[in-house]
Amino acid sequence: xxxxxxxxxxxxxxxxxxxxxxxxxxxxxxxxxxxxxxxxxxxxxxxxxxxxxxxxxxxxxxxxxxxxxxxxxxxxxxxxxxxxxxxxxxxxxxxxxxxxxxxxxxxxxxxxxxxxxxxxxxxxxxxxxxxxxxxxxxxxxxxxxxxxxxxxxxxxxxxxxxxxxxxxxxxxxxxxxxxxxxxxxxxxxxxxxxxxxxxxxxxxxxxxxxxxxxxxxxxxxxxxxxxxxxxxxxxxxxxxxxxxxxxxxxxxxxxxxxxxxxxxxxxxxxxxxxxxxxxxxxxxxxxxxxxxxxxxxxxxxxxxxxxxxxxxxxxxxxxxxxxxxxxxxxxxxxxxxxxxxxxxxxxxxxxxxxxxxxxxxxxxxxxxxxxxxxxxxxxxxxxxxxxxxxxxxxxxxxxxxxxxxxxxxxxxxxxxxxxxxxxxxxxxxxxxxxxxxxxxxxxxxxxxxxxxxxxxxxxxxxxxxxxxxxxxxxxxxxxxxxxxxxxxxxxxxxxxxxxxxxxxxxxxxxxxxxxxxxxxxxxxxxxxxxxxxxxxxxxxxxxxxxxxxxxxxxxxxxxxxxxxxxxxxxxxxxxxxxxxxxxxxx
Length: 586
What we know:
Layout: E1 4-13, E2 20-31, E3 34-35, E4 53-59, E5 63-65, E6 70-77, E7 91-97, E8 103-107, E9 109-111, E10 118-123, E11 129-138, E12 143-145, E13 149-154, E14 162-164, E15 172-174, E16 179-180, E17 184-186, H1 193-201, E18 206-210, H2 233-248, E19 252-256, H3 290-307, E20 313-317, H4 326-329, H5 333-350, E21 357-358, H6 370-375, E22 380-383, H7 397-415, E23 421-426, H8 437-451, E24 461-462, H9 469-482, E25 493-494, E26 497-498, E27 502-508, E28 512-519, E29 529-533, E30 539-546, E31 551-559, E32 564-568, E33 578-585
Parallel strand pairs: 5-13, 17-18, 17-24, 18-19, 19-20, 20-21, 22-23, 23-24
Antiparallel strand pairs: 1-2, 2-3, 4-6, 6-10, 7-8, 7-11, 9-10, 11-12, 11-13, 14-15, 15-16, 25-27, 26-29, 27-28, 28-33, 29-32, 30-31, 30-33
Helix pairs in contact: 3-5, 7-8, 8-9
């Protein structure tokens, strides 16, 4: 057989929109009657002309608890497709009708983890009662739907996904309306069961990770889109496993779809070379390239179909530190912001569970980006004091360090009715060297100052691996303190308060308040009088909380009068002279 080499211009056509979504020129070998096509990433199945059929081959359960998973394994006959990840090639979905009559479209996905070679649909119910559903498939030339099926959704102890609260939009609520206050850290790579256990043992409920290739469980498998329009099934299977762990322990995940590394060829940690979009555009043009956007939509659809059902899927982090990308560094700012808006619009329209979205810049003082925060649902500031955050109190760096976090949290509160986060903080970019006594004191102060100034999640420390046992213990004590505060359903807002030689902050909702007081420099906080501006003459119960030991040190009753509630800090043997408190109207 004679073989010959020729140049062929390939284009992969979206059969529905008739748009070219893949283009390249390559040299291939021609075999008589056969061209080996580089654009076939899947398999063409069944003879043309046969009727398409679709049915449910298997389901994981007949009764599904609220916010747990119904997984359908789908059987299809006589479908024809090249790329199982391209919905223009093969579009599989189900329409569920809830007990209240809502129609919910859930896309299917191709799962080839460990060679499974299965089509699946995952759905999580938010109502109790009977759901009915049909499965639909369209291969571009034919379509079919399954018989109608149903399942029973039962009540559960779960609360569901998180999103901005409708009652107090500065905080998150679960789908069932209960409050969620995030307590956790960033663990972008290097994970294993010991890391997960550290979060679990210290009552952390917020975990953040990147899609990157830097090692550890999940990230030892490379990146998700390891070739154009095709997805890394081994990594995706590990993410499934990670979510199963998190679901058992009520941990929410913030997932960085695009770390700045993957959009960078020349800036910071450049990993553009492993991004398959490097085959179709330049790094600086990725925000505006129409072909890259077609591939992104395919990827986002796949991620939603595979993971969004999980009650532990928390926040879509669209991009981490945009100023670390070539597009931003080379001045394509308008295109970058337009890309964020486009991504957010896509997820808003296509994620049936409405997980919130965020995006970020790096941690320098000048990286406050009002334009970004107005676009995204979750304003996200990275706060690294060593990157230009000038100490407010030059002779007291611990106080300055704490003040930065409190002030930045309050700035978010004043400017946006949204749940705000410090999506990264700490690392070796504070006023102190990691490992020093002051470094760990400052961590304690950061998480408390952020809480009492209205942040929706503790500063997401970069990284979990730099935190020592004392830091984790402090995080645990704060988690216990907030566990009974109804952030999402009470009108909490900053309370006017003052105290001599003390930094005092409080959040108030009328009949309740919580706060934190810290003595300035070497002053003692024992017996300090804290003045809270409270109208009327009322009786209040006061709970004093030792933030360093996680214990209630005193409970008492106090009366307000003349528009003031004056609290006297009890005399206890406090190590670092700060204390938390809660008040409730009697």
